[in-house]
Specification:
Structural class: alpha/beta
Radius of gyration: 20 Å
Number of strands: 12
Strand content: 15-25%
Number of helices: 14
Helix content: 25-40%
């Protein structure tokens, strides 16, 4: 384990965080310089970039994620294919910044979630929960020549936790210094929230998935308009509210009102879910923009409703800090401001974090913690039996 010891003993490390989310848009890369471990972590974002998947790559990923009958052969191939294209993206990223693989000590890779079922169900003679991220970290390590830590979620799920969200540990480290009750909201394919209390007590951190983020909006935009996303929410902004449609959305969603700990993904809010919604809404004869209006408002509603039900009784947020792709949807941001309070809702950039790369930075930080043997799940958030060191270390 000498390579690990050498990395551990360095006064600071350069770590590249990788995030490929449920929207399957591309790979987020964030290179940070980091020192120390735990609440004394000091880090700086040095370089960042998102590389989009090709139309064919995104299509194949989404088809696989939505399929219930994928073959073992296809899963195996994709498990190796993803590290190959990620390694190429990393090489271009390094070249563009006049860097080599020697300028990165470690990679923290989230992987691509292909299945997430944290609630145990009967399988043969056991009650089994599971989570599955593709993009094998050992393959990526060999292709890049850089040690990789990946597969962060499995240890928490093995301990009875949801395995998500994991970014709350990063939220706790980063936002504690502001000594305010901060509600950190990440809006990717799925939305999730973290309440970091002004006390900084990690045991008082509350975090969980809320419901759909950009996922249903993007699926609807693709279906109704033939576009990849609703830029700035302009299409939805042109629609009108329909209370009957909103009631349908609330009735068809079992997840938003359910109590934490909880996590979800495309298994629930995927194409089948959208098909059901669109079928039920047909008698209302809504315009396409009206449907987008309702779905966008429901995303804002699900975030606020989870805050109202499960956090507000104990903590009142002094700031609502938005990160992820949803922060670029100005209509969604306006709706959140109506629910929470116009003065409270701000983008993560106003707190010194690049809103587009928060999760990639977070997994770089988690990789640093794993290297130090520091537990980085928060059982109060995930429901795990205890704290655990997350991830697998893959050396070159």
């Amino acid at each position: 384990m000498q390579p690990v010891q050498r990395l551990f003993e360095k006064p600071q490390r350069h770590i590249l965080g990788l995030m490929s989310g449920t929207s399957c848009d591309g790979l987020d890369m964030a290179r940070i310089r980091i020192a120390h471990t735990g609440p004394k972590i000091d880090f700086e974002l040095l370089n960042s970039k998102t590389v989009s998947y090709t139309a064919e790559q995104k299509k194949q990923l989404l088809q696989l994620l939505q399929s219930r009958t994928t073959s073992a052969q296809e899963l195996s191939k994709l498990n190796f294919y993803l590290p190959h294209i990620w390694a190429e993206m990393i090489k271009r990223f390094l070249d563009e910044n006049s860097l080599t693989n020697k300028d990165i000590d470690l990679i923290g890779s989230h992987g691509q979630t292909i299945w997430h079922e944290p609630v145990a169900g009967r399988y043969m003679d056991r009650q089994i929960s599971s989570t599955f991220q593709l993009g094998d970290p050992s393959v990526l390590a060999q292709l890049t020549g850089i040690p990789v830590i990946g597969d962060f979620r499995t240890a928490d799920v093995a301990l009875g936790g949801q395995g998500a969200p994991l970014i709350p540990y990063f939220d706790w480290i980063y936002f504690t210094k502001f000594k305010r009750n901060i509600l950190s909201v990440n809006i990717g394919g799925i939305s999730n929230i973290t309440l970091v209390p002004s006390s900084g007590d990690i045991n008082a951190v509350a975090a969980f998935d809320c419901g759909p983020g950009n996922m249903l909006i993007d699926l609807a935009v693709a279906r109704l308009f033939g576009l990849p996303y609703d830029e700035s929410g302009n299409l939805a902004r042109g629609g009108k509210e329909n209370t009957d449609f909103f009631d349908i959305l609330k009735k068809e969603d079992p997840f938003t009102p359910s109590a934490p700990p909880k996590s979800t993904g495309r298994e629930l809010y995927g194409q089948t879910y959208l098909d059901t919604i669109l079928q039920k809404v047909e008698p209302l004869h809504l315009g396409k923009a009206d449907i987008l209006y309702g779905l966008t408002k429901y995303t804002a509603y699900s975030i606020f409703e989870n805050y109202r039900r499960f956090i507000l009784p104990a903590y009142k947020a002094e700031a609502v800090v938005i990160g992820g792709g949803g922060a670029h949807n100005s209509f969604l941001m306006d709706l959140l401001a109506v629910y929470f309070n116009p003065g409270k809702v701000v983008s993560a950039s106003e707190y010194g974090i690049d809103q587009d790369f928060k999760e990639a930075i977070g997994f770089a930080v988690l990789a640093n913690e794993t290297l130090h043997g520091t537990p980085s799940n928060i059982p109060a958030a995930t429901g795990a039996l205890r704290r655990a060191v997350l991830g697998k270390i893959c050396l070159v």
